[in-house]
Amino acid sequence: MTYCESAPVAKTLPAPTAYLCGLTWDGSMLWHSDQDAGTIFAIDPSDGTVTRSWRCARVRADLAYDGTRLVQVGGRPKRLLLIDPETGESAGEKAVLPSSGRLTGIEFGPEGLWMCLRGPTVVQLRNYATMEIEREYPVGGESPSGLTYVDGMVLHGDFGEAMVRALDAQTGAEVGAFRVPGHPTGMTWDGRHLWYCDFPARALRAVELDSVLVNRA
Protein backbone atom coordinates (compact mmCIF):
# COMPACT_ATOMS: atom_id res chain seq x y z
CA MET A 1 0.00 0.00 0.00
CA THR A 2 1.40 3.38 -1.01
CA TYR A 3 0.71 6.68 0.68
CA CYS A 4 1.94 10.07 -0.49
CA GLU A 5 1.50 13.29 1.45
CA SER A 6 0.54 15.31 -1.61
CA ALA A 7 0.28 14.57 -5.32
CA PRO A 8 2.16 16.97 -7.62
CA VAL A 9 -0.11 18.80 -10.05
CA ALA A 10 0.83 18.37 -13.72
CA LYS A 11 -1.76 20.78 -15.13
CA THR A 12 -4.47 23.19 -13.97
CA LEU A 13 -7.34 24.57 -16.04
CA PRO A 14 -9.91 27.16 -14.91
CA ALA A 15 -13.43 25.82 -14.47
CA PRO A 16 -16.07 27.74 -16.45
CA THR A 17 -18.31 28.27 -13.39
CA ALA A 18 -18.25 27.87 -9.61
CA TYR A 19 -20.15 24.79 -8.32
CA LEU A 20 -18.00 21.96 -9.67
CA CYS A 21 -19.72 18.57 -9.80
CA GLY A 22 -18.95 16.03 -12.51
CA LEU A 23 -15.98 15.23 -14.72
CA THR A 24 -15.45 12.58 -17.41
CA TRP A 25 -13.40 11.83 -20.54
CA ASP A 26 -14.83 10.78 -23.91
CA GLY A 27 -11.53 9.91 -25.58
CA SER A 28 -10.73 13.40 -26.84
CA MET A 29 -12.17 15.98 -24.47
CA LEU A 30 -13.16 16.56 -20.87
CA TRP A 31 -16.82 16.95 -19.95
CA HIS A 32 -17.64 18.87 -16.78
CA SER A 33 -20.94 19.57 -15.04
CA ASP A 34 -21.92 22.38 -12.66
CA GLN A 35 -24.92 22.22 -10.33
CA ASP A 36 -25.57 25.93 -9.84
CA ALA A 37 -25.13 26.71 -13.53
CA GLY A 38 -27.28 23.69 -14.47
CA THR A 39 -24.94 23.09 -17.38
CA ILE A 40 -22.61 20.45 -18.83
CA PHE A 41 -19.51 21.77 -20.61
CA ALA A 42 -17.17 20.15 -23.17
CA ILE A 43 -13.64 21.36 -22.41
CA ASP A 44 -10.48 21.21 -24.50
CA PRO A 45 -7.87 19.62 -22.18
CA SER A 46 -5.03 21.51 -23.84
CA ASP A 47 -6.13 25.00 -22.82
CA GLY A 48 -9.50 24.82 -21.02
CA THR A 49 -11.54 26.28 -23.88
CA VAL A 50 -15.25 25.44 -23.67
CA THR A 51 -16.11 23.96 -27.06
CA ARG A 52 -19.82 23.42 -26.40
CA SER A 53 -22.26 23.43 -23.49
CA TRP A 54 -25.67 21.91 -22.77
CA ARG A 55 -28.27 22.91 -20.22
CA CYS A 56 -29.03 20.25 -17.59
CA ALA A 57 -30.97 21.77 -14.71
CA ARG A 58 -30.95 18.52 -12.68
CA VAL A 59 -27.15 18.21 -12.22
CA ARG A 60 -26.28 17.04 -8.69
CA ALA A 61 -23.03 15.07 -8.69
CA ASP A 62 -20.57 13.19 -10.92
CA LEU A 63 -20.60 12.57 -14.68
CA ALA A 64 -19.58 9.59 -16.86
CA TYR A 65 -19.49 8.59 -20.52
CA ASP A 66 -20.85 5.20 -21.61
CA GLY A 67 -19.27 5.26 -25.07
CA THR A 68 -22.32 6.86 -26.66
CA ARG A 69 -24.05 9.08 -24.08
CA LEU A 70 -23.13 11.29 -21.17
CA VAL A 71 -24.39 9.85 -17.88
CA GLN A 72 -25.09 12.55 -15.29
CA VAL A 73 -25.98 11.95 -11.64
CA GLY A 74 -28.97 14.20 -11.13
CA GLY A 75 -32.50 14.65 -9.87
CA ARG A 76 -34.14 14.17 -6.48
CA PRO A 77 -33.74 11.39 -5.51
CA LYS A 78 -30.55 10.92 -7.50
CA ARG A 79 -30.68 8.88 -10.69
CA LEU A 80 -28.70 8.60 -13.93
CA LEU A 81 -29.66 11.13 -16.60
CA LEU A 82 -28.66 10.02 -20.13
CA ILE A 83 -27.72 12.85 -22.48
CA ASP A 84 -26.76 12.93 -26.15
CA PRO A 85 -23.37 14.72 -26.24
CA GLU A 86 -23.94 15.92 -29.81
CA THR A 87 -27.28 17.63 -29.20
CA GLY A 88 -27.66 17.96 -25.43
CA GLU A 89 -31.04 16.25 -25.65
CA SER A 90 -32.27 13.74 -23.06
CA ALA A 91 -31.83 10.08 -23.99
CA GLY A 92 -33.72 8.76 -20.96
CA GLU A 93 -32.79 8.01 -17.38
CA LYS A 94 -32.08 5.09 -15.07
CA ALA A 95 -33.20 4.71 -11.47
CA VAL A 96 -30.57 3.91 -8.83
CA LEU A 97 -32.37 1.73 -6.31
CA PRO A 98 -32.96 2.01 -3.46
CA SER A 99 -33.77 5.65 -4.22
CA SER A 100 -31.71 8.09 -2.17
CA GLY A 101 -29.27 10.98 -2.29
CA ARG A 102 -26.27 8.79 -1.45
CA LEU A 103 -24.70 8.54 -4.91
CA THR A 104 -21.67 10.83 -5.37
CA GLY A 105 -19.37 9.32 -8.02
CA ILE A 106 -19.64 7.19 -11.19
CA GLU A 107 -17.41 5.88 -13.97
CA PHE A 108 -17.34 2.91 -16.31
CA GLY A 109 -14.75 0.15 -16.21
CA PRO A 110 -14.51 -3.09 -18.18
CA GLU A 111 -16.58 -4.83 -15.49
CA GLY A 112 -19.50 -2.39 -15.68
CA LEU A 113 -20.58 0.81 -13.92
CA TRP A 114 -18.69 1.73 -10.74
CA MET A 115 -20.24 4.02 -8.13
CA CYS A 116 -19.33 5.53 -4.78
CA LEU A 117 -22.02 6.25 -2.20
CA ARG A 118 -22.01 7.89 1.22
CA GLY A 119 -23.66 7.12 4.55
CA PRO A 120 -22.10 4.50 4.79
CA THR A 121 -19.23 4.99 2.35
CA VAL A 122 -19.10 2.14 -0.17
CA VAL A 123 -17.97 1.47 -3.72
CA GLN A 124 -20.35 -0.58 -5.84
CA LEU A 125 -20.14 -2.32 -9.20
CA ARG A 126 -23.49 -2.34 -10.99
CA ASN A 127 -24.72 -4.01 -14.14
CA TYR A 128 -25.39 -1.04 -16.43
CA ALA A 129 -28.28 -2.75 -18.21
CA THR A 130 -30.17 -3.88 -15.10
CA MET A 131 -28.60 -1.56 -12.45
CA GLU A 132 -28.29 -4.55 -10.11
CA ILE A 133 -25.44 -4.52 -7.58
CA GLU A 134 -22.75 -7.09 -8.46
CA ARG A 135 -20.06 -6.11 -5.94
CA GLU A 136 -19.93 -3.80 -2.94
CA TYR A 137 -16.85 -2.81 -0.97
CA PRO A 138 -16.69 -0.69 2.21
CA VAL A 139 -14.11 2.07 1.80
CA GLY A 140 -12.55 4.82 3.92
CA GLY A 141 -13.64 8.38 4.48
CA GLU A 142 -16.97 9.98 5.32
CA SER A 143 -17.34 12.34 2.36
CA PRO A 144 -16.83 10.39 -0.89
CA SER A 145 -16.96 12.49 -4.03
CA GLY A 146 -16.02 11.69 -7.65
CA LEU A 147 -14.87 8.29 -8.88
CA THR A 148 -12.91 6.87 -11.82
CA TYR A 149 -11.38 3.61 -13.06
CA VAL A 150 -7.66 3.17 -13.82
CA ASP A 151 -5.89 -0.06 -14.83
CA GLY A 152 -7.72 -2.47 -12.53
CA MET A 153 -8.20 0.08 -9.76
CA VAL A 154 -11.18 2.15 -8.68
CA LEU A 155 -10.22 5.60 -7.39
CA HIS A 156 -12.57 7.88 -5.49
CA GLY A 157 -12.26 11.32 -3.98
CA ASP A 158 -12.55 12.07 -0.27
CA PHE A 159 -13.78 15.66 -0.16
CA GLY A 160 -13.36 16.30 3.56
CA GLU A 161 -9.87 14.78 3.82
CA ALA A 162 -8.64 16.30 0.51
CA MET A 163 -7.56 12.83 -0.60
CA VAL A 164 -7.92 10.28 -3.35
CA ARG A 165 -8.27 6.63 -2.30
CA ALA A 166 -7.55 3.65 -4.58
CA LEU A 167 -8.84 0.09 -4.29
CA ASP A 168 -8.35 -3.13 -6.22
CA ALA A 169 -11.38 -3.62 -8.49
CA GLN A 170 -11.33 -7.40 -8.05
CA THR A 171 -10.85 -7.70 -4.29
CA GLY A 172 -11.81 -4.32 -2.84
CA ALA A 173 -8.48 -4.12 -1.00
CA GLU A 174 -7.10 -0.60 -0.55
CA VAL A 175 -3.96 -0.21 -2.65
CA GLY A 176 -3.08 3.39 -1.86
CA ALA A 177 -4.19 6.88 -0.95
CA PHE A 178 -2.75 10.32 -1.52
CA ARG A 179 -3.55 13.93 -0.80
CA VAL A 180 -4.43 16.45 -3.48
CA PRO A 181 -4.50 20.25 -3.43
CA GLY A 182 -7.96 21.58 -2.61
CA HIS A 183 -11.02 19.35 -2.18
CA PRO A 184 -11.92 16.92 -4.98
CA THR A 185 -15.38 16.39 -6.49
CA GLY A 186 -15.72 14.98 -10.04
CA MET A 187 -12.89 12.79 -11.28
CA THR A 188 -11.75 11.03 -14.47
CA TRP A 189 -8.79 9.36 -16.20
CA ASP A 190 -7.61 10.29 -19.70
CA GLY A 191 -5.11 7.47 -20.12
CA ARG A 192 -2.23 9.49 -18.70
CA HIS A 193 -3.51 11.89 -16.06
CA LEU A 194 -5.97 11.64 -13.23
CA TRP A 195 -8.15 14.73 -13.52
CA TYR A 196 -10.28 16.04 -10.67
CA CYS A 197 -12.41 19.07 -9.90
CA ASP A 198 -10.82 21.19 -7.17
CA PHE A 199 -14.02 22.66 -5.75
CA PRO A 200 -12.73 25.64 -3.69
CA ALA A 201 -10.19 26.68 -6.35
CA ARG A 202 -12.77 26.51 -9.17
CA ALA A 203 -10.24 24.56 -11.21
CA LEU A 204 -9.70 21.27 -13.01
CA ARG A 205 -6.40 19.69 -12.01
CA ALA A 206 -4.39 16.78 -13.43
CA VAL A 207 -1.92 14.58 -11.53
CA GLU A 208 0.26 11.71 -12.74
CA LEU A 209 -0.49 8.55 -10.79
CA ASP A 210 2.97 7.05 -11.21
CA SER A 211 4.28 9.67 -8.80
CA VAL A 212 1.92 8.64 -6.01
CA LEU A 213 0.90 5.03 -6.69
CA VAL A 214 4.25 3.59 -7.64
CA ASN A 215 3.12 -0.03 -7.57
CA ARG A 216 -0.13 0.41 -9.47
CA ALA A 217 -1.30 -2.33 -11.83
Give an overview of the whole structure:
The radius of gyration is 15 Å and the shape is globular. The chain has strands at residues 2-4, 9-14, 20-25, 30-34, 39-43, 50-55, 59-65, 70-74, 79-83, 90-95, 103-109, 112-117, 122-126, 133-138, 144-150, 153-158, 163-168, 174-179, 184-189, 194-198, 203-207. The protein has 217 residues and is an all-beta fold. The protein contains no helices and 21 strands. The protein has a 5-stranded mixed β-sheet with strand order 1-18-17-16-15, with no helix packed on it. Strand 5 (39-43) and strand 6 form a beta hairpin.
Task: Tell me briefly what this model is.
Helices cover 0% and strands 55% of the residues.
Helices, by number, come to 0
Radius of gyration: 15 Å
How much strand? over 45%
Q: Specify the oligomeric state.
A: single chain
- Secondary-structure element pattern, one letter each: EEEEEEEEEEEEEEEEEEEEE
Number of strands: 21
Terminal Cα span: 12 Å
Main sheet, how many strands, which sense, barrel?
Answer: 5 strands, mixed
**What is the helix content?**
under 10%
**Biggest sheet strand line-up:** 1-18-17-16-15
Structural class: mainly beta
Mean pLDDT score: 95
Low-confidence stretches: none
Shape designation: globular
